């Protein structure tokens, strides 16, 4: 009788001791996430938060998985839970802002990017993404400030330059927009969208047909098919 009880205790101890720790589950989840094995990643992280509901990084990582798989509301819920547990970490604010951007809820995105920036003002991505939110809100002056901050860290960022040009156009500054697009097309010679916007701006703002048509033709050659309409209407002899 005593032997059976002792055997049961040993078996229970072995069963409990073989259970992975929270950090082991977290590392396994992150490893799967990095390999884009989202099903395995969410399985590990769900198991973690079921046992440890206060593990803020796990909630943030769950949100990243939901973001990657297009489950916006689930992502927001997970990032919000991570923020409740640790409001001093910029990452879930930044990540939740990214979800709001996908939903085109620019005001909510801006609020989260502001919180993220207040917690870590050295994160360059925050400036660029906040610039996009401000661009969506047609707050062009503020957007330009953030794009310039992002470019200060790395002047040769095609997407930042492209959106800076859009903000300049929104701000009725075609000359600087053209200068920015010219800089961009030197850096990224296969950016069809940049050549298209450059050609359209040259023609519509400055009346430069020859230059504009040349850039529109380059855009079309690069596969930017929207250029064809402009070429057909304005560049045929």
UniProtKB/TrEMBL annotation:
InterPro entries: TPR-like_helical_dom_sf, TPR_rpt, Ycf3
Pfam families: TPR_1 (PF00515), TPR_11 (PF13414), TPR_8 (PF13181)
UniProt keyword annotations, A-Z: Repeat, TPR repeat
SMART domains for the chain: TPR
The keyword Repeat appears for this protein: yes
Statement: the UniProt record of this protein carries the keyword Repeat: yes
PROSITE patterns cross-referenced by the UniProt entry: PROKAR_LIPOPROTEIN (PS51257), TPR (PS50005), TPR_REGION (PS50293)
Ranges in a coiled coil: none
TPR repeats (start-end): 56-89, 90-123, 124-157
The name this protein goes by in its record: Tetratricopeptide TPR_1 repeat-containing protein
Lineage: Bacteria, Pseudomonadati, Bacteroidota, Cytophagia, Cytophagales
């Amino acid at each position: 009788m005593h032997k059976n009880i002792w055997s049961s205790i040993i078996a229970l101890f072995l069963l409990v001791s073989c259970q992975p720790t929270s950090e082991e589950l977290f590392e396994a989840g992150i490893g799967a996430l990095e390999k884009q094995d989202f099903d395995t990643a969410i399985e590990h992280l769900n198991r973690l938060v079921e046992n440890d509901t206060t593990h803020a990084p796990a909630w943030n990582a769950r949100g990243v998985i939901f973001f990657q798989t297009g489950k916006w509301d689930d992502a927001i819920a997970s990032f919000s839970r991570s923020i409740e547990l640790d409001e001093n970490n910029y990452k879930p604010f930044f990540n939740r802002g990214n979800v709001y951007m996908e939903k085109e809820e620019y005001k909510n995105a801006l609020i989260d990017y502001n919180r993220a920036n207040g917690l870590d003002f050295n994160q360059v991505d925050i400036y660029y993404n906040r610039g996009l939110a401000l661009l969506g809100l047609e707050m062009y002056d503020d957007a330009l400030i953030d794009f310039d901050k992002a470019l200060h860290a790395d002047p040769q960022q095609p997407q930042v330059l492209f959106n800076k040009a859009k903000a300049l156009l929104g701000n009725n500054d075609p000359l600087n927009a053209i200068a920015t697009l010219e800089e961009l097309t030197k850096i990224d010679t296969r950016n069809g969208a940049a050549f298209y916007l450059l050609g359209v701006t040259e023609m519509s703002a400055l009346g430069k047909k020859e230059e504009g048509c040349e850039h529109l033709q380059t855009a079309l050659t690069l596969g930017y098919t929207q250029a064809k309409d402009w070429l057909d209407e304005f560049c045929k002899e």
